[in-house]
Amino acid sequence: MTLVEAIRLAFSGLLSNRLRSGLTMLGILIGVGAVILLVAVGNGASASVQSSIQGLGSNLITVSPSNLRVGGVQQGFGTGNTLSMQDVAALKDRTLAPDVVTAIPNVGGRAQITYGNQNWSTSLSGTTEQFPQVRNYQLAEGQFFTAQDVQAQRKVAVLGPTVVQNLFGGQDPLGQTIKINRQIFRVVGVFQSKGSSGFTNQDDLVAMPITTAWSFLLGGHSVQSIYVQAASSEATQSAESEITQVLLDRHHISSVANADFQLQSQADVLNTASQVTGTLTLLLGAIAAISLVVGGIGIMNIMLVTVTERTREIGIRKAIGARRRDVLLQFLIESMFLSAVGGALGILVGTLGSSALGSLVSSLHPLVSPSSIVLAFGVSLGIGLFFGIYPANRAARLHPIEALRYE
Description:
This protein is α+β, with helices and mostly antiparallel strands. The chain has helices at 3-15, 18-55, 85-91, 131-135, 147-152, 161-168, 210-218, 236-250, 266-309, 311-319, 324-360, 370-396, 400-404, and strands at residues 60-65, 69-70, 73-74, 100-115, 118-127, 139-142, 156-159, 177-180, 183-191, 205-209, 225-230, 261-265. A 6-stranded mixed beta barrel has the order 4-5-10-7-9-8, surrounded by 4 helices. A two-stranded antiparallel sheet has the order 2-3. It is elongated and about 105 Å long.
């Protein structure tokens, strides 16, 4: 029997029980669709997190004070007060740290902003004029404050899009007067949107000169953290070594183990986030794959029922010369056809479902990858083959005389 004839016989057998064949394919359809949808959600989450982290700058290094100890008890992260403007100046010295482009100080906290009868609580960042360069922020309108603004302690502010939306609605914020913790400031610029990193909203902030923040809002002259821009992402490790040595020398510390500061690069954060989201995607795919196995068991069950119902037909075919491999091929084609059609429909449902989910839930951005489509379809074919072998082999091993006598 030729392959074409085997395919024709398999199709005719499936078409004779359309409802049962359709319900069997439904199990594979759900399994493949679930795999594609959940993996797309995982891929979308991974891409969103990585994009947000890279938006901070892949060559960004954050220097924070080490944890303060009070009475032998370690306090929270960055509670020490060991960084200064002199440290910032030393890190900007290219003779001491050739792989560092520049460094900026940062002080911050929460700030209550009011405009008219509207108010909004946001993140405050007191910094210098190089903030957009180091933190990879772009301006949508207006301008960032200048070095002269920093020196003169001017009450000027640059707002994030979230703050603008909640305070001004559709009004133009440029030149408007706002109150930050009851202090009057003038809006000179608005940042472009960078979105959320999954933990913090990068658009929900207000930036101002660090000298202004010290004098009118926070008090003191301490530096909470230093943002350092390395020459490139490849030079990040070299820059970290240079930063460590410069600060150890300035703080008169002989051992890294006793350092009163700590470093964290965006590359480290990105690697950690990639591992976490990769594990999440794998877990989601594995959970969805369980339904594929259930669908395969359904194929085996239906094929066993089919073999039992068509025992006399198998006996007749064998009696007139059909070989064992002909019967085996026929039933294998039937099971693989069920899994192939179910898999193809599952791909369509999973792809459309991903698009629909992204439209319904704004925080989700499912990303369907070609590799997940190929893998899901390949697994569905493999399941059809694996779970179809036993019923097909059982049919092929039937003795013609016993099959003809079957009632």
